[in-house]
Amino acid sequence: MDFEKSFQRTKTLSLSSTERQKASVLVVEPEAHLRQTLRQSLIGLGYGGISDAGDHAAALQKIEDRHFTHLIFDARHSRIGPKEFLQRAFELDPTMTAIASSYEPTIDDVFDLLISGARGYLVKPFTTESLDEALVMATKGEPISEAVLHARNRNEALASLVLSSLDSLATIIRQSKHFQTARREIPQKALVFRRSVDLGYTFAKGGPMMLREALIDLCLERSQGPATRLGRFRKRQEVRKKRKEQKGNQALSDGQNLSEEHETEIISLQGQISEKFSLESDEQEEQSDIETSQEQSAE
């Protein structure tokens, strides 16, 4: 099989005309001309229900009144900050697909909104093509891994995402030599891999060079461990076994210490009982001697 042709066949995700018609989109944009442009572009793309609001507060009122499948909102600060607005919007309707939009957004601003639940970002000025791509990817694309969003070291998490998607792609290519069903999955796995690389290049702290460093470090780290999933599974099993043995040894040690304490208590009790009986015997002998002395005096 020619895998190069398979990659060339990779299809981007798409929304059917029925899905577009059933969608209801709320546009939150303070600039009137951009708001109107967004409406016209969405109509041209075949989206059915379209509503708009001039600010975040008005948008929250509309979300409270009715359900929207998609939310395209301006990410600039107004009376309500974009992060707070998104959180309150999801409190009213957690099922919405949210897409932030702004001019020249910073990486940290975008990442903060993705952490808060946004599924995409639309950079202004937009085109009809970039608008459609943002909506489709936000609706059909795989969400960013929680491990990446909340990782302390963002570059390491992004590198892990790239390598994991690459490993998945390599596995399906290897399986495709024997299984027809695996061949059909290659385009999707290739798309996931390309998206993970795009995410890495977009959100890596320090830019692509720092991501490359993180990838090299992670590859070196993985090269020192088991090479296969089975090997990694066995390694984890060995670690778990050692932990259980350590817990068992600790429990045995605690049991031995407890036994020694019990033995000491028993010896101590035996000593106390023996001493008690000895005292009682001495008292009886003294009493007997007194009685004998009294009898002799009486005679």
Question: Can you offer a commentary on this structure?
Answer:
This protein is of the alpha/beta class and 299 residues long. It has 3 domains: 15-141, Rossmann fold; 148-224; 233-262. Helices cover 69% and strands 9% of the residues. The chain contains 12 helices and 5 strands. It has helices spanning 3-8, 17-22, 32-44, 56-65, 82-92, 107-116, 128-140, 146-149, 154-176, 180-203, 208-223, 229-298, and strands at 24-28, 49-53, 70-74, 97-103, 120-124. It has a 5-stranded parallel β-sheet, with helices on both faces. The protein starts with a helix and ends with a helix.
Q: What is the CATH first-level class name of the largest domain?
A: Alpha Beta
- Percent helix, as a range, is 55-70%
How far apart lie the N and C ends? 130 Å
Principal-axis shape equals extended
Mean pLDDT: 79
CATH architecture of the largest domain: 3-Layer(aba) Sandwich
As residue ranges, the low-confidence spans are 1-11
Spell out the CATH superfamily of the largest domain. Answer: Response regulator
Count of β-strands: 5
Total number of distinct structural domains: 3
**Radius of gyration over alpha carbons?**
37 Å
Strand content: 5-15%
Main sheet specs = 5 strands, parallel
User: What strand line-up does the widest sheet have?
Assistant: 2-1-3-4-5
Instruction: Provide a count of the helices.
Output: 12
CATH fold node name of the largest domain: Rossmann fold
Structural class: alpha/beta
Pattern of helices and strands: HHEHEHEHEHEHHHHHH
